[in-house]
Design a protein that fits this description.
This protein is of the alpha/beta class. It is 52% helix and 13% strand. It has 22 helices and 17 strands. Helix 6 packs across helix 8.
Length: 667
């Protein structure tokens, strides 16, 4: 078991340890211009496949897919040829040969599936240092988990099917499937694990997930059953192949559990006239994020298990003590949330009393995150194109605010030409632009930053009569919900020192627990059952995380609490400061300042023509040999169209280089 663990899981843990050293030495907060010309970065941002079941696939992702396919085909071909050669040398009856061949092929399917399972758990460790090391945000890594999930479950299903056919030929199907061996494979545990995996697999298929999201979400909690019974099925030394990846996932999951226990104060919860819900959460000033971050939100009045991802719509430059998100009403969860906020707002307006301004316990929210890009991708390009569809404008509002504030304050900021292409169905959605904190742009900023916002209203052919006042988004007054705390800083992307200590202490604690169990339990009581040894290995991993790792998390929590006390935030003081800031800004505003609404050009009854827009923008940016960053957030069809145009533009000799990147979830 130790040898297998060192060979397969040891390198993963070693790379994770070195990743913390690298992140300490080379923090990703600085703007990296040199990175644009590197071959690896260009391969990440060059779309190779656009139309297909996998969606938009970059060159690096395509190489990874090819390597996996080659590995699977080569491994299984080699194993089948080797098994046939082995059986042909033995003088066995034809029926026995068939049974043995099926058993050997099934064994190889299972071993290859375990290897793939190493990579299955790495992408879903949201705050994983490995994802931070290669700067893959969780919304991108989720795609890899989906792909690997289909591959792994297909291999495990073939593994089980081969044995079912083999046992049927022997006439001992039920007897073999219910067998639980002390030495060797425990078949019944494997059946239970496979059934749990099949339930997760079937409900995660896109048609099922899209129509029955809650069914998909709840059945995916069976991953605990899947892993535990897999360990009981194969024992300790076989499970050691994928134990390292599972350990990193357990580390992340335990830390997320600690962070999600905090009930977060909601500074403001309001419904905009266009039907969008805006939530503003309290956060400690030490919690860092960037304009491409996202968070997972749980509202306990709606569900204790459901966590939904939302892009942050505020910039870190907007304020140290808050973070906001915009939520479009699309399903039961979001509709119920909007109804709760609307009811409280109506009660507040009817009562019209000061005592009802704080609504305690009506919305009990918890937060996980923030997660996202390790480095501010949007700050790397002098020429930047933002393509959004509907509520997909949300992360770009944070980007616009971030860029404007940075230019105003003279902070590092590469963008000088920014084009926003925004498609909406109705004119009322255009009012979301007012959610940007930086609504007025001074003349000094206008001299340094050329901002062009092109809005396309697809389902209206003419502007409405009230188009002149549509930008005046008079949202209802927000409600304040005091739950007792700001967002917790216990997140893998938070304090690097404490995150590294948590990883190191948990790893050493797990190794120490395993050594002690071997010396004082396994050898003393002569434990030899495979399933028992596998269970002990899993329990040692959990003990190392919960006990010494939990102690580090507790110290981390106390450190964050003490830091917050040193920089205590009072809501009334903040409101007064904000009011004074607003008054001063109004009194000393630049007479020549331009508003974001004035920079917006609206077209009706049409969609953006990406070829013409991209070509014109490239000419304005300097023509040939210009690097242009393209960020898209919206439906898969919009992403495919933008990726297709980027690929077409990049294949032209001597033209500008368009770097494609998407920022959306497909959950």
């Amino acid at each position: 078991a130790g040898t297998v663990f060192l060979f397969f899981s040891g390198p993963i843990l070693l790379i994770a340890a070195l990743a913390y050293v690298y992140i300490f030495a080379f923090p990703g907060d600085h703007v990296q211009k040199k990175k644009l010309r590197s071959l690896s970065f260009r391969l990440w941002t060059f779309p190779v496949l656009v139309d297909g079941p996998l969606g938009v696939v970059s060159a690096v992702e395509f190489i990874g897919i090819v390597l996996f396919v080659v590995y699977i085909v080569f491994s299984m071909t080699y194993y089948v040829v080797d098994s046939v050669s082995f059986i042909s040398k033995a003088h066995l009856p034809p029926t026995t040969r068939s049974e043995l061949l099926l058993a050997l092929i099934g064994l190889r399917f299972g071993s290859v599936g375990l290897f793939c399972m190493i990579f299955l758990f790495l992408p879903v460790s949201r705050g994983s240092v490995l994802l931070r090391l290669i700067d893959i945000p969780f919304e991108h890594a989720t795609r890899y988990h989906v792909w690997l999930g289909h591959l792994t479950m297909a291999l495990f299903t073939l593994h089980g099917l081969c044995y079912v056919i083999s046992y049927s030929l022997l006439g001992r199907l039920i007897e073999e499937l219910t067998q639980w061996k002390e030495v060797g494979i425990a078949n019944l545990a494997g059946v239970i694990s496979l059934m749990a995996g099949l339930l997760m697999w079937v409900t995660s298929l896109h048609p099922v997930r899209k129509r029955f999201f809650e069914l998909f979400f709840y059945t995916h909690q069976l991953y605990v059953v899947f892993v535990v019974f897999l360990v009981l099925h194969v024992g300790d030394f076989v499970f050691s192949i994928s134990a390292g990846a599972v350990f990193l996932f357990m580390l992340d999951r335990f830390l997320r559990f600690w962070q999600s226990r905090a009930k977060v104060d909601i500074v403001s919860a309001a419904c905009r006239p266009c039907g969008t819900v805006e939530l503003v959460f309290s956060k400690p000033p030490s919690l860092r994020y960037n304009a491409l971050s996202f968070i997972f939100v749980q509202v306990r009045e709606l569900s204790f298990l459901q966590w939904h991802p939302f892009s942050v719509s505020s910039s870190p430059m907007d304020g140290r003590y808050h973070m906001s998100i915009l939520i479009k009403v699309l399903g039961t969860w979001t509709d119920t949330l909007k109804r709760i906020i609307t009811d409280v707002q109506e009660q507040k307006s009817r009562s019209d009393s000061e005592s009802d301004q704080s609504q305690t316990g009506r919305i009990t929210a918890s937060i996980e995150g923030p997660y996202g890009h390790e480095s501010p991708y949007h700050l790397m390009y002098e020429n930047l194109i933002l393509v959004a569809g509907g509520i997909g404008i949300s992360p770009f509002l944070a980007i616009l605010s971030d860029i404007i504030h940075r230019v105003e304050q003279g902070m590092p900021c590469a963008p000088r030409n920014v084009l926003v292409l925004w498609s909406v169905k109705k004119t009322s959605e255009l009012s979301l632009l007012l959610a940007v904190d930086a609504q007025s742009i001074s003349s000094s900023v206008c001299d340094k930053l050329h901002l062009d916002i092109q809005a396309f209203v697809t389902q209206e052919t003419d502007p409405p009569l009230e188009d002149g006042i549509v930008g005046d988004d008079q949202k209802a007054p927000g409600i304040f919900v005091k739950n007792g705390a700001a967002m917790s800083g216990l997140v893998g992307t938070g304090d690097n020192f404490w995150a590294a200590m948590y990883f190191a202490v948990s790893t050493l604690g797990s190794v120490l627990a395993f050594v002690l169990v071997q010396l004082y339990y396994v050898k003393r009581f002569n434990v030899y059952a495979w399933w028992h040894l596998g269970l002990l290995l899993l329990l040692c991993m959990a003990a190392g995380i919960v006990l010494p790792g939990g102690l580090v998390v507790l110290l981390w929590h106390l450190s964050e609490k003490r830091r917050m006390q040193d920089d205590r935030w009072d809501v009334d003081a903040r409101a007064t400061a904000d009011a004074e800031q607003t008054t001063n800004a109004a009194g000393g505003a630049d007479a020549s300042a331009a508003s974001l609404a004035a920079l917006r050009t609206t077209r009706y009854g049409c969609r953006p023509k990406f070829h013409a827009e991209f070509a014109a923008f490239a000419e304005r940016g300097g023509g040939a040999a210009v690097d242009i960053g393209v960020l898209v957030c919206g439906p898969s069809g919009l992403q495919a169209s933008v990726a297709r145009e980027c690929r077409s533009q990049n294949l032209r000799r001597g033209g500008a280089v368009f770097h494609f990147n998407s920022h959306s979830f497909d959950l």
